[in-house]
């Protein structure tokens, strides 16, 4: 199935281009490229986190979790919030262990310097400040389990599963919800999602595609139907109907 976020992004870029909002279009494309949510694709977010660990990029890693804490984890239950906090702590441990295993003492020290606001008064880290200065920490009773491949794998699988749950609790914006509804309904009707994507992503071509006055008036009738709705109360059903009719009238 087509990605609703890709479709919405295409619609927004098409609109900005059509209106001549060049600066807004460039800013939008830049923001899309730097988006930390990765369009709420769990695999992409986990890959991004692993990449930060492998590249010793603690700033970007912190940025990902700051985004998740503000935009995603606020929708969780109290128990789930505690799990999110624990996973964040463990991912930072994995980051630190990776610096030790690859003999990057400067990156270990940098981790504590850049992360002090998070680590301060955090009881889970009381024993970790001395880690960079311990010989063979992988043999220490305190740290050795964190150096095992099994712990690394279990942590990443747990993170993946948890993010799947967390993302499922995020309510998307109205336009994304409408596109999702269209994709779901048309998929049930047997229409290929790629065809739906093609129809929705090319609204500018509609200007020259009207074959008759009656066809043009049909589209105005669609818009007129929405005027009976209270403008102060956006109606998703009407928006879905308009999108489906406008997208479908050219198929």
Question: What features would you describe in this structure?
Answer:
The protein is mainly alpha-helical. It folds into 2 domains: 38-168, no CATH class; 172-248, no CATH class. It has 12 helices and no strands. The protein has helices at 4-19, 22-33, 42-54, 58-71, 78-101, 105-114, 116-119, 149-168, 174-188, 193-201, 213-226, 236-248. It is elongated, with a radius of gyration of 24 Å.
List keywords for this structure.
single chain, 251 residues, mainly alpha, 2 domains, elongated, endosome, LisH domain-containing protein, phosphatidylinositol 3-kinase inhibitor activity, WDR91
Write the layout of secondary structure elements.
Layout: H1 4-19, H2 22-33, H3 42-54, H4 58-71, H5 78-101, H6 105-114, H7 116-119, H8 149-168, H9 174-188, H10 193-201, H11 213-226, H12 236-248
Family: Belongs to the WD repeat WDR91 family.
Main location: other
Keywords: Endosome
From the alpha carbons, calculate the radius of gyration and give it in angstroms: 24 Å
Tally the helices. Answer: 12
**Which consecutive residue ranges, at least 5 long each, have pLDDT under 50?**
200-213, 219-224
DSSP E strands, number: 0
Shape: elongated
In short:
This protein has 251 residues and is mainly alpha-helical. It is built from twelve helices and no strands.
């Amino acid at each position: 199935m087509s990605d609703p976020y890709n479709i919405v992004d295409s619609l927004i870029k098409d609109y900005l281009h059509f209106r001549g909002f060049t600066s807004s279009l460039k800013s939008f494309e830049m923001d899309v490229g730097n988006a930390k949510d990765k369009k709420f694709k769990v695999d992409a977010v986990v890959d991004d986190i692993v990449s930060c660990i492998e590249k010793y990029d603690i700033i970007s890693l912190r940025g990902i979790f700051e985004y998740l804490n503000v935009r995603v984890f606020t929708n969780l239950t109290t128990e789930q919030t505690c799990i999110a906090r624990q996973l964040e702590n463990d991912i930072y441990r994995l980051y630190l262990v990776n610096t030790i295993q690859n003999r990057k003492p400067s990156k270990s020290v940098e981790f504590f310097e850049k992360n002090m606001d998070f680590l301060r008064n955090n009881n889970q880290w009381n024993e970790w400040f001395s880690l960079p200065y311990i010989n063979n920490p992988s043999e220490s009773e305190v740290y050795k389990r964190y150096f095992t491949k099994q712990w690394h794998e279990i942590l990443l699988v747990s993170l993946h599963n948890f993010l799947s749950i967390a993302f499922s609790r995020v309510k998307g914006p109205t336009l994304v919800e409408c596109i999702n509804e269209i994709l779901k309904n048309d998929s049930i009707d047997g229409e290929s999602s790629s065809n739906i994507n093609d129809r929705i992503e090319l609204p500018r071509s509609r200007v020259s595609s009207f074959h008759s006055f009656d066809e043009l008036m049909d589209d105005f009738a669609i818009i007129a139907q929405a005027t009976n709705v209270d403008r102060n109360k956006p109606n998703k059903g009407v928006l879905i109907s308009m999108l489906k009719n406008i997208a479908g009238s050219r198929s």
